[in-house]
Write a structure and sequence with these properties.
With 184 residues, the chain is mostly helical. The chain has 9 helices and 4 strands. The chain has helices spanning 6-18, 27-39, 43-47, 80-92, 106-120, 128-141, 146-153, 158-164, 169-178, and strands at residues 54-57, 60-63, 65-66, 73-74.
Length: 184
């Protein structure tokens, strides 16, 4: 599966929010994928998220969850705009802070995303593409800080993160070969 481009992300979320003649609008699916793209969490962890899992810690908001796959505690900051987005979503849908924001199965999210991707002509995109987009975007915005992205994704090694964002050994070798600068 691929990481999304910025245009694909925007088009997918907009299309899911608005629907088409082929499928109805689905704000819940759009919110789930927006959450994944903005928090870098796996979709399964997003589906268990409650507003109560976002706590105020001094001057910041942070996650207070444990990742299902790794069993690692996730305590990263949540941008105020993302928290506000969740609060508005919960209020609009009458979801209490202690209830799951998205009571739906991962399979249902994947199924709807596939319908939209087929409609748009996008191939090799899954829910995980939104997490990959998050990782790739942070990697590029941070001046290619692979250790930062490794930490945010809670990967065990930089090599795992390199593979994850699509940095192949061939790319690394090509970059090394192009960087030769010998002063004689």
């Amino acid at each position: 599966m691929l990481a999304l481009t910025n245009d694909q992300y925007t088009t997918l979320i907009s299309t899911i929010q608005n629907g088409t003649e082929s499928f109805r609008a689905n704000p819940r699916i759009a919110a789930i994928l927006t959450a994944e793209a903005n928090l870098g969490m796996r979709v399964g962890d997003i589906l268990r998220l409650r507003l109560a899992d976002i706590v105020r810690d001094g001057g910041r908001l942070r996650l207070n969850v444990t990742e299902e796959k790794t069993g690692k505690k996730r305590t990263f900051s949540v941008p105020e705009a993302v928290y506000s987005y969740f609060c508005k979503y919960a209020e609009k849908h009458n979801i209490p802070a202690t209830e799951r924001l998205f009571p739906i199965t991962e399979r249902a999210v994947q199924k709807h995303l596939k319908i939209v991707c087929d409609y748009l002509g996008y191939a090799d995109i899954s829910t995980h593409s939104f997490r990959k987009w998050y990782a790739t975007d942070i990697y590029n915005a941070s001046g290619h800080d692979i250790i930062l992205v490794q930490h945010l994704l809670q990967h065990s090694s930089p090599a795992t993160t390199r593979r994850y964002i699509g940095m192949s050994d061939e790319k690394v070798e090509a970059a090394i070969a192009q960087h030769v600068s010998i002063v004689a």
